[in-house]
Design a protein that fits this description.
Blueprint lengths: L3 E7 L4 H11 L4 E5 L10 E8 L6 E9 L2 E9 L5 H17 L13 H10 L11 H10 L4 H18 L6 E8 L1 E2 L11 E2 H29 L2 E9 L7 H14 L7 E5 L8 H9 L4 E3 L7 H6 L6 H13 L5 E7 L6 H14 L3 E6 L7 H4 L6 H20 L3 E6 L10 E5 L6 H8 L3 E5 L4 E5 L5 E5 L4 H6 L1 H7 L2 H6 L1
Parallel strand pairs: 1-2, 1-3, 6-9, 6-16, 7-8, 9-10, 10-11, 11-12, 12-13
Antiparallel strand pairs: 3-4, 4-5, 13-15, 14-15, 17-18
Helix pairs in contact: 1-2, 3-4, 3-5, 4-5, 6-7, 7-8, 11-13
Length: 495
């Protein structure tokens, strides 16, 4: 049964980070924020109080946790206001580890982009002698943020590869994202805004026409601003729900409207094998696409059925073979650790079979229990035993992929992930997915077209401004004129 835990905050406003950290240990708990502190605190609770003596700059922070018969407090002296929240969270983390007996592998990190933090720490090293000196960041991860040695090593290795990719970009470069918000069916773990083909089939053609118009109008702004295209990524949803003819129209519009001479990578997600045909792959290949994703998630037919996929492992092999036959020499394959009904042995078997296929890159995701996903709405919660199984799956993938010659090139995390783990992109040397690094590290502008797409405008100072397209296909179609007006914000940003 889900319980409610109170978070009492006295003379501070640390609720956001407190709740996020507490959810790592209590993923199925609801939290209540309270600033008016009563005479008697009502358990279960987390209590954080900041006390400063009159006329003194130094402060003391008390962190207390009371759950059932457990009660423990910790105190921290704070001389620097910028460290108040971090030191409070570290104290809370240590108390919760004592109570639960659980040591999260990413320590007290709860953000999406741990590699971005690692790079920041590396660059602020006061004794840094050269760009390869990472020990300062490693020590901070382990000692300050309580990240495990294994995840710290993974972060250091990933950051090294990412840094080499980020060096390739110029100040006036950007990447283009194209959103296709349709899927043949909705997977039980998915919370993305996408429409099943059965429900939205009549919208696909008008959507395709307007997407081409948006691409055209966007390219005019890009030319006027003198921006250079570095990568293109068509995602979804499932882009291959489009017909071969519709796919040709969209991709040829990109080629016609943008200067592709400096484009390093052109990716299309062909993720669902039940949508992949020889004709569609030929249309993609003919448009100059050099990287595709064919995403099994699992090669266990029973698990595929559990997550609502209407295809078999045999279909995955067939799609992969067709892509190779047409000459695709950069294929990515996605897997998910912790799927309903999957076992540690089953995941190992899937991964071993995928490695035998020798795709150029393999992305290992961890199941995230998103609130809007069918699997969550059906009443399923994050389970400790299942989290341990997911951790064993991810641990095996790290070892097996390294042995097979793959290395980590990008990494990100999501909320409500089984085992508080991560998603990691692995590739053979020289086959990294550039767009994945650009979008995750927020160092390059991403201009997006299509329903649900978000344009991210990155400044030299490291700030990010966002322009949101309308979420749903029908809304995108009905309010297209307003959408184009919104996108004028791109020019305003650069002006």
């Amino acid at each position: 049964m889900m319980r409610i835990m109170k978070i009492y905050l006295d003379n501070n406003n640390f609720y956001y980070e407190t709740e996020k950290l507490a959810k790592v240990f209590f993923p199925n708990t609801k939290f209540e924020e309270i600033h008016q502190i009563p005479e008697k605190l009502v358990p279960p609770y987390i209590f954080i109080a900041k006390c400063c003596d009159d006329g003194e700059e130094d402060c003391k922070i008390r962190v207390a946790v009371c759950i059932d018969d457990f009660h423990k407090s910790g105190f921290v002296d704070v001389a620097d206001n910028s460290e108040e929240e971090l030191l409070s969270m570290r104290t809370l983390y240590d108390i919760l580890v004592t109570f639960t007996g659980v040591t999260p592998p990413w320590g007290l990190l709860t953000g999406v982009r741990p590699i971005k933090l690692f790079r920041k720490l590396k660059e602020e090293n006061p004794d840094r002698e050269n760009e390869n000196d990472v020990q300062y960041a490693i020590d901070k991860f382990k000692n300050i943020y309580r990240v495990s040695p294994e995840k710290t090593a993974l972060a250091a290795e990933t950051e090294k590869t990412e840094s080499e990719i980020l060096k390739l970009t110029s100040d006036n470069s950007f990447s283009l994202y194209l959103a296709i918000p349709f899927c043949p069916t909705r997977c039980s773990y998915c919370s993305f805004v996408s429409s099943s083909v059965k429900q939205a089939k009549k919208l696909i053609e008008p959507y395709t026409q307007l997407l081409c118009r948006e691409i055209e109008e966007t390219s005019k702004m890009v030319k006027e601003l003198g921006l250079h295209l570095e990568s293109v990524y068509m995602g979804g949803g499932t882009p291959t729900t489009l017909s071969a003819e519709q796919m040709t129209r969209v991709l040829s519009t990109v080629n016609k409207c943008f200067d592709m001479s400096g484009c390093r990578e052109f990716t299309v997600e062909a993720g669902r094998p039940d949508t992949v045909t020889f004709e569609k792959l030929l249309a993609i290949k003919s448009a100059g696409v050099d990287r595709i994703s064919i995403n099994p998630q699992t090669l266990d037919d029973k698990v595929l059925e559990n997550i609502g996929r209407k295809h078999s492992a045999k279909d995955i092999y067939s799609a992969f073979d067709k892509a190779r036959e047409l000459g695709f020499d950069h294929i990515n394959m996605d897997l998910i650790a912790g799927l309903p009904g999957d076992t540690e042995a089953g995941f190992k078997k899937t991964l071993d079979k995928v490695i035998e296929l020798s795709p150029e890159s393999i992305t290992v995701h961890t199941l995230a229990m998103k609130r809007a996903a069918e699997i969550t709405l059906s009443g399923k919660h994050l389970d400790k035993k299942e989290a341990q199984t997911a951790a064993a799956m991810v641990s095996y993938s790290t070892k097996a992929l390294r042995l097979a010659g793959y290395h980590p090139y990008y990494l990100y995390r999501q909320s409500r992930m089984a085992g508080n783990l991560e998603n990691t992109g692995w590739s053979k040397p020289g086959k990294e997915g550039y767009y994945n690094v650009f979008i995750m590290e927020e160092t390059q502008t991403i201009i997006s077209c299509g329903a649900g797409a978000v344009t991210k405008l990155c400044s030299d100072e490291g700030t990010v401004e966002r322009i949101f397209n309308y979420k749903y296909p029908y809304e995108y179609i009905d309010r297209f004129a307003q959408l184009l007006d919104r996108k004028k914000g791109i020019k305003d940003f650069y002006d």
